[in-house]
Every structure is written in structure tokens, then in C-alpha cells.
Amino acid sequence: MNPLKSATRVALASDQAIYRKGLASLIMTIKGFQIVGEAQSVVEIVELCKLTQPTLVLLDFKNSAEQAHHIVSEIHNLWPAMKIILLLDCPEETLPLDDFGSIPLYLFSRDVNEDEFRAALLQVEREPSPQPVTEEMPHPIFSHTSPLETEEDVEKALKTARSSSKVNEEFTNRELEMAGKIQADILPEEAPQLSGWEIVTALEPARETSGDFYDFIPLSNHKMGFVIADVSDKGMGAALFMALSSTLFRTYAVRFPTLPAITMSAVSERILSDTRGNMFVTAFFGILEPLTGRLTFANAGHPPGFLISTSGKGKISLTELKTTGMALGVSEQARWTQKIVRISEGDLLILYTDGITEAQNEHGDFFGEDRLLDVALAYAGHSAAEVHRAILNEVHHFVGNARRSDDIALIVVRRQ
Fold first, then answer.
1. pLDDT tens by residue, 170-183
2. DSSP-based three-state secondary structure for 221
3. Element (H, E) at 7
């Protein structure tokens, strides 16, 4: 058998000859990858794709968002199943991502090192090729259980269920208590101590166990990764799912220390392959450079974070760190992009789960995003600890004696 038949065929395009040759040399060192051709212009790469039909196209057009948009759209229209990678200096700032609509593509920053580039390329290669959007066919529903035909059958079934419930209730409570303790051990004991930064956290489970979690992950070059996430379900199942998700984030964040979007992709892939339930995870994952204040993030269907900046003249500006892709563990076809913001001295970053905005009082009213922002803006000039305390106090006061139904996680960060 010809070994090249199973190779990932890569077509490479760059308007810089030296950079193009370097990328080609690097890709050829990766087992299972084959360079089928190189191009130096938009026209050449389209012709090259027609001739070679590559599996993957790697595009590097420095500082040319117009060229990038044109070529990505043309390649996707001609070959919808072809994977496309854009390699740009700072893709989130130079490229209008919304213009691409639903076109699935991957964004790599040029500041990746060789090992991270190889790992990211292998991750892209493992993911399924994009599929054309088609109308979903309805699935028939089959039932393998016999109906309860008489009143006597129903009564017997109810008695059996009640008996089983009483026998297992005490055991279940003990198991939940133990699971809660184990889960607490997974969370960091305290927030990291970063020079020039103040970080305050909280997790308040609504039950013995929590589906919310947060974590801080030390990365190379003095960077710090942090994640806040929310599992879709409650109870023991959500606790186990939370433990799995937390472990996956730690594993892949270290592997892709400058590519949070690829970390999201890898975590989602493992969730889909390792679980068989219908749970999913919303998550915000950011990589902070403490010395520069640069924050590169991806948001997988999670409530938007808020960056509050105060100028020297007392003016306050608000930036929403919105979703950059769907929740994790939902679809094999899902893709995430990453964005960059800069946290200046005095700026405030607030990350939370929907247990805050969806907290309800006795009348069924929601706490909501507006109340959260009102508190945050009112305390914009205060320390992270004071902002953190004010938000939680306001939520508790709003809920009052109503029964809490959702977990709460909150991270407040201030650059001093």
C-alpha cells in the first residue's frame, strides 16, 4: 500500500518566500503530513488546490485581511470539506471574524513555537472535516419497554419505586457528601499570587456537589491560564463531568499555551469521544500575560465576561468578552475563534457563571446582567476583594429566602 494515500495533504500559501520555506520544512518533519505544493499568491493557491485536492490549506498573508477573506471564502465555496488554517500576526485585531459567517476555519498566531505549532496542526488533522449544511432528517423513536396496562400494574410499580428510594436514600446522601469533598479538593485552594495583580474567587454550590468550576493553570513564559465553566446538569453526574472537564483543560492548556481556541477544540473532542450522555459545558478560557496585560481568550457559549476600564479623567468604559463559539461537547463540527484584549493598570475583569445572572427571588424575577453591571460599575474604583464582596452580597440580598437552584462561581481580577 502506498503510505502517502493516508497522509494529510497540505497546500501552503505565503507571500513571503523565506517564511513559506520555513513552514514547509517544519510541516515535513511531522509524521503523516505531506506538502503537496506551495503558492505565493491568492490565484496560485486556488489553482494548486484544483490540481492537488489537499486535505488542509495553510494560508499566511501578512497584514492582508482583504486577501485572507477573499481566499477563505473562495476555497470554502469550491471545497466545503477542506480544512483551512489562517496564520496571522494578531488575527483577532486585524481580521473581521464576523465577515466569515459560518465558514469553519482555524486561526493560528505567528508567536507559536515549533512544538505548539506541531501539536496544534495534529489537533486540527484529528478533527472531522467540515460537512455541508443539510436539512436534518427526523429520527424515529422506538420504545423497548412494555406499557403498564392495568391499575394494579401501576400500583405495584409505584410501591417498588418507593421501596427502592427509601433503601437507597441514605446511601445516596453519603455518596453525595463524599463527592462534594472530592470535588472541593479539585478546585485550587487559593487564587494565584501575581505581582501587580489582585485575583479573588468564589464557588457556592446550590447542592452538595457543583457543576460549576474554575481553575488557574501556570503556562510557559510566565503566562497564566484560567478557566471558569458550567456543566449543563446538576447533581452527581454534573460533578463527575466537572472533574473530567477540569482535567482536560489542564491537559490541553499546557499543550497549547498560546492557542485557547485550539484548547477548546481539543477539550470538546475528548468530551464527545469519552462520554455518552447529553451533558455539555460552557466555558471561558483565557491566557494572561501578566507583564503586558494581554489577555487572549476563547468563550464557549459562556456568559460574557466584562472588562471595565477607568481613565484618568474618571470616565468608565465597558468591554464585553462575548462568545466565540458554541458550548463544549455539543457537536463534532464546532469551531472556536480567539480574541485579544489588553488589561491596563486599574482595569477590572469580571468572570462568572449564570448562577449569578439567573438567580431568582421569591417572585420569580431574575437578578440579571443589568444588576450585575450596576454593582460592578458602582465599585469600579475599588479593590477586587471589595467588588467581589459587593456582587455576592447583592445577589444574596436579591434572592432572599428563595431556594437557590443553581451554583455560583465568580472571579474578579484587577490590575493594580
1. 555 555 555 555 55
2. helix
3. none
Question: How far from the centroid of its chain's Cα atoms is residue 273's Cα?
Answer: 17
Q: 405 near 355, Cβ under 8 Å?
A: no
What would the pLDDT profile of 305-362 be if each residue is shown by its tens digit? 999 998 766 789 999 999 999 999 999 989 999 999 999 999 999 999 999 999 999 9
Residue (of 279, 228, 219, 222) closest to 251 by Cα position: 219
Taking the alpha carbons at both ends of the chain, their separation in whole angstroms is 62
198 within 8 A of 414, measured Cβ to Cβ: yes
3-state secondary structure 90-152: CHHHHCCHHHHCCCCCEEEECCCCHHHHHHHHHHHHHCCCCCCCCCCCCCCCCCCCCCCCCHH
Q: Which three cell numbers, joined as nine digits, stand for 242?
A: 466537572
**CB under 8 Å to 260, separation ≥6 — which residues?**
225, 253, 285, 286, 287, 296, 297, 298, 336, 338
Q: How far is CA 343 from the centre of its chain?
A: 20
Structural domains in the chain, sorted by start = 8-126 (3.40.50.2300), 189-415 (3.60.40.10)
User: CA–CA separation, 368 vs 302, rounded Å?
Assistant: 15
pTM here is 0.73
